[in-house]
Request: fold
Amino acid sequence: MIADVPHNHPLLVQFREDPYPLYRYLHAAAPVQWSDVLDAWTLARYADVVESLTDPRFSADRTPEVIQQDYGFAKSMLVSDPPDHTRLRALVQKAFTPRMVEQLRPRIGSIVRELIDRIATRGGQFDIITDLAYPLPVVVIAELLGVPPEDRETFRDWSAALAASLDPLVSEAAAVRATQARDALHAYLRGIIAERRHAPRSDLISALVAVEERGEILSEPELVVMCTLLLIAGHETTVNLIGNGLLALIEHPEQYAHLRETPGLIGSAVEELLRYDSPVQLTARIASTPLEIGGQHIEAGQWVLPLLGAANRDPQQFTAPEQLDLTRNPNPHVGFGRGIHFCLGAPLARLEGQVAIAALVQRFRALELAGKPVRRDQITLRGLKSLPVVVPA
Reply:
């Protein structure tokens, strides 16, 4: 939705800085609420969010316009329904299974050690986002796809512009920036794809090119859009997971110490960090038929915004939801969504988060804030621009 964003609108302000008081209000007073500003229903209850993500009457095909370029038309699997979604996802699913991702553990560990060794030379003060949370997933997804090392930083601005366009309200200026970034990234990817046609390598882009050449399973425009999604989604969520997670641990030093003393807890710790301050706060669906959810009637064609961050703090689903508890079990959070659109990269994000957070906690017995964390100026993807920290003497 493109609009002149009312920057003082309380929904946007609270989402950006601290959405959780708003979520508590919605849970108590308006779990299913129509917003004239957003022109959509917001869903705050866990049960309603899960229903909206798993009931096929809620369509993910929420952008009627297709991505149009001079080389054709395509939609991302992110905004596609079956059978298109099924076909597109199947083409890359095998590369992101837990077994395949686990094979990346040694390389991820090597990158993390290199980054933390570099941090350790900086006199005890560094920025978690700049020095760890951002470079790790960028290197990993770039190596997986086959993006040349010298080009890894090129798509940072493109990624930020495209990520900002995921918000429910987008200014005309932000929409223009996103279009320009998309066009530039697509042109860049077409160049890499052309290179892989001529000289294939052992990377994911080469594998997708081979699939496309075997016979119209993946069209050229779909190939470009697929690579765009993998490049952007392959690092945005993980940056936010590591940044938000480490901020939460720093703000709860007893939990930081517990994780340091019990390193085997890292698996459940990352799940709790995903629940406690979700990297993705909301998504969108469209009702394909009239239906009822949470006692409210939804007309066909109306938007619903499942608030993943609110669902993960629902007191009807989680005991003491405002409490950070790294031992929480069970922990059926929706940080990666649910249903057929469950995050394709979840195994990779989990692994990167586990390796990075565990290594940092083990290297430094404690961390303290060295300044005010700076939030990114967007609400769908909740993350930090900067997280300055210092190792206490």
